[in-house]
Amino acid sequence: MASMRDIKRRKSSIQSTQQITKAMKLVSTVKLQRAKGNAERSRNYFSCMYDTVSSMLAKAGNIDHPYLRAGVSDRKAVIVITSNRGLAGGYNSNIIKLITRGELAKDQLDIYAIGKKGKDTLQRYGYTIKEDYSDVIEEPAYGDAMRISAQVLKAFTDGEIGEIYLAYTAFKNTVSHEPKLIKLLPVEAADENASEERRDNQAPMNFEPREEEALEMIIPKYITSLIYGGMVESVASENGARMQAMDSATSNAEEMIGTLELQYNRARQGSITQELTEIIAGAEAIS
Amino acid sequence: MEAFTLRIITPDRIFFEEPVEMVEFNTTEGEIGIYPNHVPTTVIVAPGILTITQADGQKEAALHAGFAEILQDSVTILAEVIEWPEEIDAERAEEAKERAEKRLASRTPETDVARAETALRRAMARIEVIK
Asked: Which of A48, A202, A214 sits opposite B44 (nearest CB)?
């Protein structure tokens, strides 16, 4: 049986760990509230953007534009959004699993990393890291998304890459987040039914300039909004995941402290009993 | 007078959502003014001033990038960058204007003329809207 002192030391170490996890949980709760607000506010913009682009694509069905077909290169770009910090449960590893266990061949991928954790891990697995934008995930701004999308689109139009994907964690609610891999380019024809419905209840849409040119200008904005949306949702998911991880760490610590408390009391009682036995035995020996 | 709904949405907030009588702004094809019952059109925004006319007066904002979806009873502007006059830093706008002018004046083959021009137009829209 462990000595009383050992048990005591162990208990106090767990107690201080518990204090840390508790504090981290509170911090991520606050951050989550803010990130959730951001994610919800950006959703409006994104859904309008999505509607417009889908209706344009539905209308521009037979337009042959470079953004609508795969490039000649067989290389694929993946924008991977993870966090800069760990201790967020399965948040980062779920995204990485999405890449490593997905259908995308390792040697064809160019990784555009947002988030240090994802970058480091994928680098260790031998993936090509093309760019690293890890500092933007701390405070995602629309300007950052514009910069990233401009760079990725340039690589696409230059023919360096043929397809662009985005890996991020979709934020459904505080406890449920889903890692997602979506294709950004070439833009896939939108859901037919949705666009049909939209067309029915509205007069036909005109474009100024013509569809091709309008598409040329709107698609980059669309990609930017997807990247921005991915960033804010991922930040919200990260904090949600960390909050959950820290919550369960705190309650695990609670449980361990309880067990140790019991062990400590037993050990203390044991030592008192032993001492008494020794005193009585000694007294008997004298008389 | 008849009114329609104008919604201006930016990536991080709903900038404006109220009934208006007329809205004017710059597009890549030139300036346009929209009254209710406009023919459905999608236009691309060019940097300039956005003027909103409501029953109780006019409002202005500097609109820099985005696109607008015009329907008969509503107009939705998806603005990447838009600012109310009180949000604009006058000094920064002046500096940006000078910088862009200098870049255009001393142009070398490496100068990104299109970018400098957009920067200049943005700065001018900002300066004009605070006046």
From this structure: A214
| B40 and B101 part of one domain | no
Which residues on chain A are in Cβ contact (under 8 Å) with B78?
45, 48-49, 52, 221
- pLDDT above 70 covers a percentage of chain A that reads 91
- Domain A4-20+247-286 bears CATH identifier 1.10.287.80: yes
Q: What is the CATH number of the domain that holds B53?
A: 2.60.15.10
User: How far is Cα of residue A101 from the mean position of the Cα atoms in its chain?
Assistant: 17
Please tell me the distance from the alpha carbon of residue A214 to that of residue B48, in angstroms, as a whole number. Answer: 19
- Considering chain A, what is the average pLDDT of its residues? 85
What single string gives the DSSP state of each residue in B107-128?
--TT--HHHHHHHHHHHHHHHH
Write down the pLDDT at residue A62. 61
Q: Locate A204 and state its tokens.
A: 């036909």
Query: Which residues of chain B carry a pLDDT beneath 50?
Result: none
Among B44, B76, B81, beta carbon nearest to A217: B44
- Which residues of B fall within a CB distance of 8 Å from A147? none
Q: Which residue of A has its CA nearest to B10?
A: A45
Q: Where in chain A are all domains bearing CATH 1.10.287.80?
A: 4-20+247-286
Rg, chain B, Cα only: 16
Question: In CATH, what number does A25-245 get?
Answer: 3.40.1380.10
Instruction: Note the ipTM here.
Output: 0.76
Beta-bridged to residue A169, according to DSSP, are A179
Q: Whole-model pTM above 0.80? A: yes
Same domain (yes/no): B17, B79: yes
Residues of chain B in contact with residue A203, where contact means CB-CB under 8 angstroms, are: 39-40, 72
Q: What is the pLDDT of residues A23-66, one digit of tens each?
A: 999 999 999 999 998 888 888 888 888 877 777 777 665 667 77
Beta pairing class for B41-44 and B30-34:
unpaired
pLDDT tens digits for range A146-203: 889 989 988 888 888 888 899 999 888 888 899 989 888 887 755 544 444 454 455 6
Residue B35 lies in domain: 4-85
User: Which candidate, A120, A59, A52, places its Cα nearest to that of B69?
Assistant: A52
Q: CATH number for the domain including B115?
A: 1.20.5.440
Q: CB–CB of A42 and B12 under 8 A?
A: yes
